[in-house]
Amino acid sequence: MKPNPPALHPNALQGLRVIEMGQLIAGPFAGKTLGDFGAEVIKIEAPGAGDPLRNWRLLKNGTSVWWQVSSRNKQSLALDLRTEEGQDIARRLIAEADVLIENFRPGTLEGWGMGWEQLSALNPGLVMLRISGYGQTGPYRDLPGFGAIGEAMGGLRHLTGEPGRVPVRVGVSIGDTLAALHGVIGVLTALYHRKVNGGQGQVIDVALHEAVFNVMESLIPEYSAFGAVREAAGSALPGIAPSNAYKCSDGYVLIAGNGDSIFKRLMEAIGRMDLGNAPDLANNAGRVVRVAEIDAAIEQWSLSRGVDEVLALLGTARVPAGKVYTARDIVEDPHYRARDMIVPQETRDGYTLDVPGVVPKLSATPGSLRTSAPHLGDDTDAVLAGMGLTAEQIAALRSKGVVA
């Protein structure tokens, strides 16, 4: 396998060792994010099928192309954690690690003798990220939870879709990725605390629904102050006007004309200075009252024009606007390419795949794609040899199905 080009800059997290347990989206996304910035990430997978994400959605050469993104910059150790020998190997790895990521149902690791008390005794500096549906405590802790359920309980699903119609999903597993990003924030915070406070590790407890709830803006304060229950509003931004999706002759354009001066420029661009100069529309509160009228005026103008013309006219008027991008639009957009957000990655199956670049962008220690996603167990021998096991010991473990 030809490696991807080496990083030209030092990696911010170089020297950090992460053990990733769990599967699918939330835990692995956290591991990917740390790996993108230089952490050594050893992913433990069950022998046989491995992480189910290997087989999700569209497959090329028998492997999901989603897997190629989720597991880049990682090593794969095929290890059966249901066996005592597998658990012993995992403990030895964790004893030398900085971070453990797991997204099992609460109690799973405890059942294997790898709860926080046991692991922190082995490794007092360990930072343990635990992502679950409902958190490690509370009356719902033992219920099964996926990202979709977290989105519903966190309040997001109630706001998605058109008023009066069935709530819809965002289109991606946003509950899982929000939990992962909150988890990464927790890991980096805990590592800083460990550095400046005597080397002590700690647990980061992330619940899927709480990660969603944390980004719900004024949802609860509005209910607390006014008893207001925010409802679905389609493409509009409730209480902010004008900000909506407007139909053009060949598609839709999102227009955010909700700043006071921006609104005036928008009305001038569409030839409606009667609205632009109306005293009651000079601020957002007044515009919210007449939002239906304003939206109708904007769409009357946009309907007779194509998306490109609308964007060109609004760009000249310095009004924030954009089309609704498809995957094709993203890949063909020069801005994405200029900022290295679409990058080629050579897979271990020998083909090159366009994948998302690294976010966020650091000036001195940017993230990088150092290795492509592994086949199941690609790194089993190397990891075990690094622990001091001999070839004979590894072969014995393999014969018993403990590793693969």
From TrEMBL:
<dbReference type="GO" id="GO:0008410">
    <property type="term" value="F:CoA-transferase activity"/>
</dbReference>
<dbReference type="Pfam" id="PF02515">
    <property type="entry name" value="CoA_transf_3"/>
</dbReference>
<dbReference type="InterPro" id="IPR003673">
    <property type="entry name" value="CoA-Trfase_fam_III"/>
</dbReference>
<dbReference type="InterPro" id="IPR044855">
    <property type="entry name" value="CoA-Trfase_III_dom3_sf"/>
</dbReference>
<protein>
    <submittedName>
        <fullName>Formyl-CoA transferase</fullName>
    </submittedName>
</protein>
<dbReference type="InterPro" id="IPR023606">
    <property type="entry name" value="CoA-Trfase_III_dom_1_sf"/>
</dbReference>
<dbReference type="InterPro" id="IPR050483">
    <property type="entry name" value="CoA-transferase_III_domain"/>
</dbReference>
<keyword id="KW-0808">Transferase</keyword>
